[in-house]
């Protein structure tokens, strides 16, 4: 395994273990930096601020009663008193790994969903506009650029409806320093500003449970936006928020299924007990996020959430996999100090070569997810608390492993967020 680009001249480990480490680090990292593909769908509305033709849904959209330059005047009656079909929900990050499931869940519940998407979406921008229109079935698709506030506002204006709720599923594509601040903070803030301009009185944010112990740039960026979101609600009692902090996703734990199936060892750091989690499926998480749109017990709350069952360590995950494939457990234990050495060396190189800033950050991200649990952190005890971490849903990691063993990781590709 090479931690760095070939030109750096530094190789951490060189052996047949290369493939194992790539799989392991990728699987730990995927939970928090995601660029995703989306399911199949039929086009409803395509808005393009460049003036090219667009397609309109047969669903009736309520026009906004305000000039484009002014803030939309909303009714004194809370949107929570309306029928879902009359509630307009703006979803940003709609083509992401979780975002696409959120769009599907919201439309299935009858909400009028406006899904903001890039013209080239998916892993490495492989999906065209037509692909996205087909994939986000049931939603009104609005093509825009969330990193540009003016463009985003024009796009939302072009949809021609007021906004009741904004749901942000945005996340950094790679976890790099600049990308984290551009997406996890700036772009997410743009979605708040644009949503508020056109009437939004509630904001649902998909954050991450790991921000409790912020050592990485994307965590600091998320926390900065969380703080500003809370401040917005403090200053305006007509505005509310729900901050969702999920634990690890199933996808983030599936990187070694094929290796174990082929009889190769399961790779873990230390004794395999360093980083426990209560993994949650994308569908269960999407359902929880959709609950946050209307349920008043989730208003102005920070909501850590995990999946059903007990917290699982990497050792227990590996044992589960070996049992499912009917093989004797075989583990490859890697000292965590290997990553500490690599990170220290990279930090030294950054002082000389600033362009290696992201490489150093990637090393820290890998180290974080190799050592830190995705559970509630108790600052008083200095320990993670599995019992205090809420559970939700019905999908289990064991069921996911069984499905992957039969069908492979199709639709669960790690893509651009792969580090090594």
From TrEMBL:
<keyword id="KW-0149">Chlorophyll biosynthesis</keyword>
<keyword id="KW-0934">Plastid</keyword>
<keyword id="KW-0809">Transit peptide</keyword>
<dbReference type="GO" id="GO:0033728">
    <property type="term" value="F:3,8-divinyl protochlorophyllide a 8-vinyl-reductase (NADPH) activity"/>
</dbReference>
<keyword id="KW-0521">NADP</keyword>
<keyword id="KW-0560">Oxidoreductase</keyword>
<dbReference type="InterPro" id="IPR016040">
    <property type="entry name" value="NAD(P)-bd_dom"/>
</dbReference>
<feature type="domain" description="NAD(P)-binding">
    <location>
        <begin position="93"/>
        <end position="294"/>
    </location>
</feature>
<protein>
    <recommendedName>
        <fullName>Divinyl chlorophyllide a 8-vinyl-reductase, chloroplastic</fullName>
        <ecNumber>1.3.1.75</ecNumber>
    </recommendedName>
</protein>
<dbReference type="GO" id="GO:0015995">
    <property type="term" value="P:chlorophyll biosynthetic process"/>
</dbReference>
<dbReference type="InterPro" id="IPR044201">
    <property type="entry name" value="DVR-like"/>
</dbReference>
<dbReference type="InterPro" id="IPR036291">
    <property type="entry name" value="NAD(P)-bd_dom_sf"/>
</dbReference>
<keyword id="KW-0150">Chloroplast</keyword>
<dbReference type="GO" id="GO:0009507">
    <property type="term" value="C:chloroplast"/>
</dbReference>
<dbReference type="Pfam" id="PF13460">
    <property type="entry name" value="NAD_binding_10"/>
</dbReference>
<comment type="pathway">
    <text>Porphyrin-containing compound metabolism; chlorophyll biosynthesis.</text>
</comment>
């Amino acid at each position: 395994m090479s931690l760095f680009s070939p030109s750096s001249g530094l190789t951490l480990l060189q052996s047949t273990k290369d493939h194992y480490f790539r799989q392991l680090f990728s699987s730990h990292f995927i939970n928090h930096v995601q660029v995703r593909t989306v399911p199949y769908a039929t086009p409803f509305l395509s808005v393009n601020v460049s003036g090219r033709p667009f397609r309109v849904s047969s669903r009736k959209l309520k026009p906004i009663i305000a000039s484009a330059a002014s803030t939309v005047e909303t009714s004194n009656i809370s949107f929570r008193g309306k029928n879902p079909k009359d509630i307009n929900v703006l979803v940003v990050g709609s083509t992401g790994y979780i975002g696409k499931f959120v769009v599907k869940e919201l439309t299935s519940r009858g909400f009028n969903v406006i899904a903001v998407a890039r013209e080239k979406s998916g892993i490495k921008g492989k999906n065209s506009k037509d692909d996205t229109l087909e994939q986000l079935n049931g939603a009104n698709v609005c093509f825009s650029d969330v990193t540009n506030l003016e463009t985003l506002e024009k796009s939302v204006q072009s949809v021609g409806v007021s906004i009741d709720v904004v749901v942000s599923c945005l996340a950094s594509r790679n976890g790099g320093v600049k990308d984290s601040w551009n997406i996890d903070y700036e772009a997410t803030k743009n979605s708040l500003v644009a949503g508020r301009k056109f009437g939004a009185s509630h904001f649902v944010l998909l954050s991450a449970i790991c921000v409790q112990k912020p050592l990485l740039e994307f965590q600091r960026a998320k926390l900065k936006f969380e703080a500003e979101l809370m401040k917005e609600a403090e200053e305006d009692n007509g505005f509310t928020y729900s901050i969702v902090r999920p634990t690890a996703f199933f996808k983030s734990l599936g990187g070694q299924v094929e290796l174990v199936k082929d009889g190769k060892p399961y790779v873990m750091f230390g004794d395999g007990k360093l980083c426990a989690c209560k993994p949650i499926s994308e569908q269960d998480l999407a359902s929880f996020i959709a609950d946050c749109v209307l349920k008043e017990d989730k208003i102005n709350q920070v909501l850590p959430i995990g999946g059903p069952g007990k917290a699982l360590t990497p050792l227990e995950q590996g044992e589960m996999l070996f049992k499912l494939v009917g093989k004797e457990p075989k583990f490859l234990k890697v000292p965590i100090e290997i990553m500490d050495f690599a990170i220290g060396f990279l930090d030294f190189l950054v002082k000389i070569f600033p362009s290696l800033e992201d490489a150093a950050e990637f090393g820290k991200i890998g180290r974080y997810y190799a050592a830190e649990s995705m559970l509630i952190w108790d600052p008083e005890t200095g320990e993670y608390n599995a019992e205090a971490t809420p559970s939700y849903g019905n999908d289990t990691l064991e069921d996911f492993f069984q499905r992957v063993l039969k069908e492979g990781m199709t639709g669960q590709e790690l893509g651009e967020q792969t580090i090594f």
